Amino acid sequence: MSGDRKLPSAPGGASGGNAIDAFVREVSRLPATRGGAGRGRLLFALDATASREPTWDQACSLQGEMFVATAALGGLEVRLAFYRGFDEFKVSRWTAEGVKLARLMGAVRCLAGRTQIARLLRHAAQERREGRLDAVVFVGDACEEDVDAVGHEAGKLGLLGVPVFVFHEGSDATASRLFPQIAKLTRGAYCRFDRSSPDQLRRLLGAVAAYAAGGARALEAYGREKGGPVPLLTRQVKGDQR
Q1: How many structural domains comprise the chain?
Q2: What confidence tier does 63 reach under pLDDT thresholds 50, 70, 90?
Q3: Domain assignment present for 228
Q4: I want to staple 113 with a disulfide (CB 3.0 to 4.6 A). Which of 62, 85, 126, 178 is the partner?
Q5: Counting beta carbons within 10 angstroms of the beta carbon of residue 195, is it exposed (0 to 12), middle (13 to 18) or buried (19 or more)?
């Protein structure tokens, strides 16, 4: 794929980076995303193409931390979304039960196909317009799409006030440059995780769930308790991109 040459420059670089910084400043003036009562709502989005098969079962077993982390904050409702195969994109019903979500994920098998990240971001925007959506988790390892199109959809989602927390598995060069931009454009956060350290991903999922259920303060409290890579997410959500 030749999309890498179309990626924007890193912040502080040429005009592309300056444009992104300007857009982020515009998004930063939007009101906080979390303010309603009741359970937080989180879209748990996964790349289910063939390259993710080795770690799919691992992700199934770790998602329970999202529900544990929010038990004292009023709970969490999660909707599973995934893409795979030839143009296949599916979304589950909302569930507040970790066991039910694990069962849904366990029934999914990875299939070879191209990524559909732009489509996923468009769906999240539609969810936001039709009801409440507090945050999106995206777990993926690659991008095989026009990166400008993906960035455009991320920007529109950012204007709607929905942060995307991107967890990057592996070291794909295009994803390494694009995924942090998705997080920045939506005022979310980006973190690379190592498939050999499942506890790291467990804590990261719990951190995002805490944010969806209780906002930045809940995320900060969770980070103090769990440590590890979680404070990195807290700093990014607060606007510190170091």
Answers
A1: 1
A2: low
A3: yes
A4: 85
A5: middle
DSSP 176-193: HHHHHHHHHHTT-EEEEE
DSSP 8-class letter at 71: G
**Segments forming the whole domain that contains residue 142:** 41-237
Task: Enter the pTM of the model.
Answer: 0.77
Question: What is the tens place of the pLDDT at every residue in 121-162?
Answer: 999 999 999 988 988 999 899 999 999 999 999 999 999 999
Q: What residue spans of the chain are helical by DSSP H? A: 15-28, 53-62, 64-69, 98-106, 117-130, 147-159, 173-185, 198-226, 230-237
In a domain, 111, yes or no: yes
Residue 58 is which amino acid? Q
What gap in Å lies between CA 14 and CA 17, rounded to an integer? 6
In this structure, the number of other CB atoms found within 10 A of the CB of residue 37 comes to 5
Torsion of CA 67, 71, 77, 78, to 10 degrees: -10
Question: Encoding tokens for residue 224?
Answer: 């103090």
